Amino acid sequence: MTTLRSRRRIPAAALTIALAAALAMPAGAALATGAVPARPALAVAESSPTGFASVNALGQNGTTGGLGGPVVTVTNGTDLAYYAGRNTPYIIMVSGRIQISGMITVVANKSVLGVGSTAEITGGGLQLGSTTRPGNNVIIRNIRFTGASDDSISVTNKAHHVWIDHNDLSDGYDGLLDIKRESDYVTVSWNRFHDHSKTALLGHSDTYTADIGKLRVTYHHNFFDGTDQRHPRVRFAEPVHVYNNYYRGNALYGVASTMNAGVLVEGNYFRDVAHPIYVGYDKSGPGRVVERNNIYDNSGTPQTAGTVVEPRTYYSYPLDPAANVPAIVEAGAGVGRI
């Protein structure tokens, strides 16, 4: 078994995000700080992120999105783009199906939240930040993304403190959820990915070495449901924490660590995945992987190599037994669950 090396602890944030009213949750449904949601029913989802989006770093104490800003409801792409691009905090409620083309830029201090179980963005996607306007402190929850002409969600251009939670992503042109170009402190949780190939890229390219020392991302309780590859595919990043995800029928591979990335894969359930973990992939050089407490059900043998920084030096987290992950994730991932 390969081992993990530790590093200086960075305190985790302990913020409760007061979005219960905006999400139309019942009175008193928001969890207290530090609470863990009931499993597997998940009647109430987390009100603040676990993982890297919770960490106090880069001048941002956790991820609060548009907290404190006005709550607005949008039903068309024009209004969505307008409020997403404003320079002040907003809680943007997406109601119904919104058809867009291209990418809408979401700038700092925004929450983009779906209403009920029918919120959908189709034809295009959301890009967090531009080269001149950062996409820091952004929350995207409870939205179905379909048929994007590029990425469904792109976290890019040094965006940090991002929480992407309880979405449903499918049938895009390029990546469903790409995180790249020096972005940092991101949590991807409780999403369902399906009907797609290139699922979740982490790291721009083999030559984009500016990503070294960045791209700290947590993936937990996601359902990679028949998607082919990139769950995630990682370059340069360390540590990347992949825990309690459910992988089912992924044709090419589960996780790939390349270009000296450091990835911890723990407590996941792999079902019918011939290549659950790769060290190196295609033309990219090898990364490092530590695996522990995973279940490989009718799946191949994982590749591992080297040591990886321990995520617990950044934050604490609850870990579900891998045997329980399929039931927990199927019950809780996707839209209409918060």
UniProtKB/TrEMBL annotation:
> Any keyword Secreted?
yes
Task: List UniProt keywords, sorted A-Z.
Answer: Carbohydrate metabolism, Lyase, Polysaccharide degradation, Secreted, Signal
Q: Where in the cell is it found?
A: Secreted
Q: What is its main location?
A: secreted
Q: Which InterPro entries match?
A: PbH1, Pec_lyase, Pectin_lyas_fold, Pectin_lyase_fold/virulence, PEL, TAT_signal
A GO molecular-function descriptor: pectate lyase activity
Q: Name one GO cellular component term.
A: extracellular region
What processes in GO biological process is this protein linked to? polysaccharide catabolic process
Q: Which residues form the signal peptide?
A: 1-29
Record domain Pectate lyase: where: 67-276
Q: Which residues cross the membrane?
A: none
Q: Which domain of life is it from?
A: Bacteria
Name the family.
Answer: Belongs to the polysaccharide lyase 1 family.
Task: Tell me the PANTHER family matching this sequence.
Answer: PECTATE LYASE 18-RELATED, PECTATE LYASE 21-RELATED
Report the protein name in the record: Pectate lyase
The species this protein was found in: Sphaerisporangium rufum
